[in-house]
Batch of 2 targets.
Target 1
Amino acid sequence: MDSINRLRLLSEQMELEPAEEHRENAARPACFTPKQRNAVFVHPAQLPNGQNIKLLKTLLTSACERDCYYCPFRAGRDFRRATFKPEEFVNVFMELNRRGIAEGTFLSSGIAGGGIRTQDKLLDTADILRHKLGFRGYVHLKIMPGAEKAQVERAMQLADRVSVNLEAPNTNRLQKLAPHKQFMDELLQPLRWVDEIRNNQPPYKGWNGRWPSTTTQFVVGGADESDLELLTTTAWLNKNVRLKRAYFSPFDPIRDTPLENKPATDPMREHRLYQASFLLRDYGFNLEDMPFSNDGFLPLHSDPKLAWAQSNLRERPIEVNRADRSILIRIPGIGLKGAEAILRARRIGRLNDLSSLQKMGVVIQRASPFILINGKRAAQQLSLF
Ligand code: SF4
């Protein structure tokens, strides 16, 4: 199989792995032959600093010796697998980079020969890119279950982002998805090491002088876990290991796996989990503020910020001329930027009507039931507006 066909197989198989912010559907390079054009999946992605790049997401190998119940790559499953040696992958990637097709890469792998050996292959690949070929673009490296602390540190010296997929929110739930993975020792421990290294050592002075950010991924609905369990773990990670972001991938059954008959998770659940996780991370909300049902699930029909406001602000609307930032950002329709704009405007004068709020980016249809402007209910202005 030639390199492009291997890359097609391996990058197609990475479709299941969310990373960075995808802006649109996968792009196919225009400078390949028609057959090759369907071959490589380079995703337009937005990096944490806001920069847009073309990101090649791929595996080094889709062979795997583990048998996670939900995974298409699990050992023994019959499908076409492919493998790159580090030098082979680097050659293909640099060719795509020279042609302007791929500007960065997200590298993961199935486990072959143990987590330590597999991690070494990922590290070798990144090392060649950085130190032999002087590649200075974006690299996201996956940390393999069972990797050693020194390998985690080396990955941090080579990558802009490192990630560990927890898959489930705790040990018991992980047993239902991947009985041979160890939640504490193999998955959580590397995330702790990342934070420990960032806390205790000055940034590596190698290629960019910054420690990378960290992310994780959960398979939502695969282990019958509740939203409360997922968000409890996410909040803990935000606080204790400074996780940049949790990705929530709705479970989707794969043919010829032990979970093939389990129903797919409603994508709206993924959406609500993202909304709630951003409220926890950026908006000062606590788990107690989330509108969980008795069995720990968020309502699918209403976003959690709106649900909180309906319970807490409808009878006690907020005066936008007086509220501080921490209150403003709890009002539906007012985001982080909108709150900053309101505070800036208040330094100059009073806010008198909905149109001035709208000019600051406030979604007034959402905000108006919960705010007062100069002591008057904004909802009453809405019809005039
Ligand atoms: S270790 Fe990773 S690649 Fe292998 S079966 Fe489990 S989830 Fe899939």
Target 2
Amino acid sequence: MAAAKRVPRSTNSETEAIADLGWPDWIDPAATSRLREAILGGRIGHSYLLSGPKGVGKAAAARAFAQALCCTSEERKDRSDPCGRCRACRNVLRGVHPDVETFSLDTQEMLADKPGRGSNLTIETVRRLRSSGALFPMESDRRILIIDDAETLLEPAQQALLKTLEEPPQGVTLMLLTDEPEILLETVRSRCQEVALRPIPQVMVAQALQRRGVAESLAIEVAMLSRGCPGWAIAAAADKKLLQARRDERDSAVRWIASPRYERLVTAFTLGDQFGKRRAEVVGVLQAAIQLLRDEMIVAAQAAGEAGENEPQSVGVTPPAVLFSRAIGATLQCLSDLNSNVRPRLALEAMVVTWPNSEMRDR
Ligand SMILES: [Zn+2]
């Protein structure tokens, strides 16, 4: 069991609130293995793209990777395993190691002349990264430059970054972190080794919380709301506001799905018209809706199994599990449409008409 301690939040990234020694035991093990094997095999790439939903552990993975490359302990298991305790490991964690630099909306705001947090990483930030990449490492063999919020790079900034990706400086590894890899230019993506961090099962999220001393009942509730993102869960277990916001999203999704068809449409139109102002909230409610529909689908499939309905359905009768599956597909499509140029009102309308009529169970 890894020891854990809390450090003050230095950035907006949810995973920054957690400090594990070495590799976090709560991130997608396949992603951890890939990064560790690269170090062990001496095949450290020039550029990685760590992708996955917010709070899945991208920043924690990048931090552990950087620690492994900078760690000076003689006593670690192997080169891919940072000790977490030496001066270098602690400095990486605190964001003060001279060979590890993070570029994000937060660091950009700290360095900006004007107050206010922008919503895009600027070309100046990319220039700063390029200058940083030209430096020689001071304490380790390599410089690790982490670009968080990479999806906020506008095209000119991505073009500037592309020059660095095309002619990577010796001894530099770039790590782009993003929850929306599809937004990046294909030329940028194709020059990075993509390591996707997948959400982990709810039961594993709950276990990670309990290992950190979170009471069982809270751990189970937070895990249920986590969408498989342990970084979010660990932060939310200690942050009532974060947790309440997600409870509210879930309650809104339950009310919306449980309402009669006409009311569902009215809600879809209202949210569609207000989408510009309430984007994050609407996306959150849709993600909660997907989770609820999945739960309903599992219940329906189990009920069908118990009733022995394994033979083909008679014509004209669609089993409930299939209806839920369609509704999930339509809701995922709506999320994708809201990211492209489809009018929000139309996207939401097309989604709600596929939702089956069901009494949402009180959970
Ligand atoms: Zn160390």
